[in-house]
């Protein structure tokens, strides 16, 4: 009798999984779906509750798209990228002004501080990590000064990424007039979110007109280092124009779903939406916002990368701290290399996540065997960038691993202007010139099995 009850529970759990996946439009990679089915079937009393906590990865379903033939066709070299993103429901590219890629941590800090100090009405900041270090304290002083000057200052911290952030520091910020909220705290109503869906986006927006973004969190290792350690190699940028207003709308969406203390701050409706002013100048500096994550019906960056790899003709240059692609992305990279495209991947020789370094090994061997080139940098590389021919430069917060591609809230920006593409390419060449070629070695049987287990268990669910 007990066996029959156990089997009935397993069947009911699998039915719950199948029905909820279908009705909520959760489209999972086959290996991730298999991982859930095995977990629920083998450990149903653990697997089903775990699925309720971790199983959701999309909050919206794809909209029915109506094709339009209005307007002249886009015959620019980037037309395929723009059409791909618009086909997934994203806003078209906009002309931007004041596009600047920060050459190092010092330049990035100067741009961040200038944006904060230049805010006159509203300042919105979103970060995955706020450090308990000198940078964290300097950020606190800047925000307190703007709040004292009458600027509406909002700071959104990811509850997992910033779990080490000093609560005393947060209390001091609130006392200074800064409105601080936590994104998806671990102890919350599960109907309002899933704690494995983290907000990895980095944004600072001043008055809905200027934005600072990229890969840098607000901690010492991203700017100047601390205690004699060199800073991480990272890439961030600033720009002005309509994309800043889009970034502010994105921030507003996160803010509405974040938790703050009762009675803190103004109601959302009382905060005016400030449109980006005026012209960004000529049609140069065209760029397109590419958010990715649970608030997007499609896997936008993933779809763009696959399209780009099949469209590439000469060169694909990618920089990422972690490389744990799914089979489709790895196959696209290898096929590009096999047909003669110069595929070059730059990683840190050793990242700050040991499991990611173990999980990447098999994919690196496959890419080199296909004719791709892999280089390893001596220091920690935290930058995220992809350059395709002279057509597209993509940079922001997304790493080339399954968590960033399919689970996290991420933000990339696609730059289409030749000068911006050249600037990103030059930054990669200047910042990572010391990277050395990776020489693959055949793993032992135990090592090969271990790599597969780490990749499956750590990067699928």
Search tags:
single chain; 461 residues; alpha/beta; Endonuclease, Chain A; seven-stranded mixed β-sheet; 14 helices; 39% helix; globular
Q: Secondary-structure blueprint of this entry?
A:
Elements: H1 2-23, H2 30-42, H3 44-54, H4 79-87, E1 94-95, E2 97-101, H5 105-118, E3 122-127, H6 134-148, E4 152-158, H7 167-175, E5 179-183, E6 203-206, E7 210-214, E8 236-240, H8 242-256, E9 286-292, H9 300-311, E10 315-319, E11 323-324, H10 327-338, E12 342-348, H11 354-369, E13 373-377, E14 385-388, E15 392-396, E16 400-401, H12 402-406, E17 410-415, H13 418-431, E18 436-437, H14 445-459
Parallel strand pairs: 3-4, 4-5, 10-12, 11-16, 12-13
Antiparallel strand pairs: 1-9, 2-8, 3-6, 6-7, 7-8, 9-17, 10-14, 13-18, 14-15, 15-17
Structure overview:
- With 461 residues, the protein is of the alpha/beta class.
- Helices cover 39% and strands 18% of the residues.
- It contains 14 helices and 18 strands.
- The chain has helices spanning 2-23, 30-42, 44-54, 79-87, 105-118, 134-148, 167-175, 242-256, 300-311, 327-338, 354-369, 402-406, 418-431, 445-459, and strands at residues 94-95, 97-101, 122-127, 152-158, 179-183, 203-206, 210-214, 236-240, 286-292, 315-319, 323-324, 342-348, 373-377, 385-388, 392-396, 400-401, 410-415, 436-437.
- The radius of gyration is 22 Å and the shape is globular.
């Amino acid at each position: 009798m007990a066996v029959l009850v156990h089997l009935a529970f397993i069947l009911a759990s699998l039915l719950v999984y199948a029905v909820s996946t279908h009705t909520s439009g959760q489209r999972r990679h086959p290996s991730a779906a298999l991982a859930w089915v095995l977990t629920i079937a083998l450990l149903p009393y653990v697997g089903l509750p775990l699925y309720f906590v971790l199983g959701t990865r999309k909050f919206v379903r794809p909209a029915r798209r109506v094709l339009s033939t209005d307007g002249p066709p886009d015959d620019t070299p980037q037309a395929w990228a723009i059409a791909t993103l618009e086909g997934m429901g994203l806003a078209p590219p906009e002309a931007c002004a004041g596009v600047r890629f920060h050459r190092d941590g010092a330049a990035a800090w100067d741009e961040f501080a200038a944006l904060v100090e230049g805010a006159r009405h509203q300042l919105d900041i979103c970060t995955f990590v706020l450090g308990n270090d000198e940078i964290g304290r300097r950020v606190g002083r800047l925000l307190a000064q703007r709040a004292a000057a009458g600027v509406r200052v909002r700071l959104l911290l990811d509850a997992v990424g910033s779990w080490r952030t000093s609560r005393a520091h947060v209390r001091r910020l609130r006392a200074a007039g800064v409105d601080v909220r936590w994104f998806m705290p671990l102890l919350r109503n599960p109907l309002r979110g899933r704690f494995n869906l983290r907000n990895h986006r980095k944004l600072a927006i001043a008055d809905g007109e200027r934005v600072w973004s990229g890969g840098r969190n607000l901690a010492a290792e991203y700017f100047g280092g601390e205690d004699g350690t060199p800073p991480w190699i990272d890439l961030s940028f600033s720009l002005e124009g309509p994309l800043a207003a889009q970034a502010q709308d994105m921030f507003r969406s996160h803010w509405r779903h974040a938790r703050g203390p009762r009675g803190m701050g103004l109601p959302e409706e009382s905060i005016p939406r400030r449109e980006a002013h005026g012209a960004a100048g000529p049609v140069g500096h065209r760029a397109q916002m590419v958010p990715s994550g649970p608030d997007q019906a499609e896997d936008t960056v993933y779809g763009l990368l696959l399209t780009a790899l099949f469209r590439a003709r000469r060169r694909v240059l990618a920089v990422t701290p972690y490389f744990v692609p799914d089979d489709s992305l790895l196959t696209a990279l290898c096929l590009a290399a096999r047909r003669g495209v110069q595929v070059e991947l730059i990683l840190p020789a050793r990242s700050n996540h040991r499991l990611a370094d173990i999980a990447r090994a098999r994919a690196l061997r496959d890419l080199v065997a296909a004719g791709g080139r892999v280089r390893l940098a001596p220091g920690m590389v935290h930058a995220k960038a992809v350059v395709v021919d002279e057509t597209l430069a993509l940079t922001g917060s997304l790493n080339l691993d399954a968590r960033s591609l399919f689970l996290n809230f991420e933000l990339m920006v696609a730059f289409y202007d030749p000068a911006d593409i050249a600037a990103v390419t030059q930054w990669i060449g200047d910042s990572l010139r010391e990277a050395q070629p990776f020489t693959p070695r055949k793993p032992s049987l135990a090592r090969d099995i271990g790599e597969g287990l780490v990749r499956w268990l750590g990067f699928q669910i």
